[in-house]
Design a protein that fits this description.
alpha+beta, Thiol Ester Dehydrase, Chain A, 6-stranded antiparallel β-sheet, 5 helices, about 30% strand, globular
Length: about 170
Amino acid sequence: MHVEERKVLREIDKITSPLRFRLWSLFKFPASRFAGLRIDKLDSESCVVSVPGGWRTQNPFKSMYWAIQGMGAELSTGGYALAVVNSLGRRTRTLVAAQESKFRKKALGEITFSCEDGVLARKAVEESIQTGSPVSVELKSTGRDAAGDVVSEWVFKWSFSIMEKGEVS
């Protein structure tokens, strides 16, 4: 079994559909719905997620709460991987096994998180298909404010494992 590009593109269309994303986030990721996360771009190389500033996302110090930044960063690293995994039509264990972050500047206003590691995510899923074993990969996301300044940097270690028929997750 291999990853079929046309199926991945179909999944990207589903994920980036505003109505489907709203419904998915409401039922599967409700905190993101409340915070106002949006996928601005998703393709085989990158995923860009934006998070609005304001009362729903701020901490008592009037900057964006670190956990909200984490949601945006995680979704930017997992967006393309989600499309690849969903395109397989097979059960897959997908797990964030580790996370590291660095905060560079106070996050004010809308913050945009971008991950350019889509190729790495796909290779990890394909390797899991070939080997039948879990495969881990580190995917990086950078959060920038409206001026383009880096406010935070994130690394998520994702683990992908394609399950055999009859295997329980």
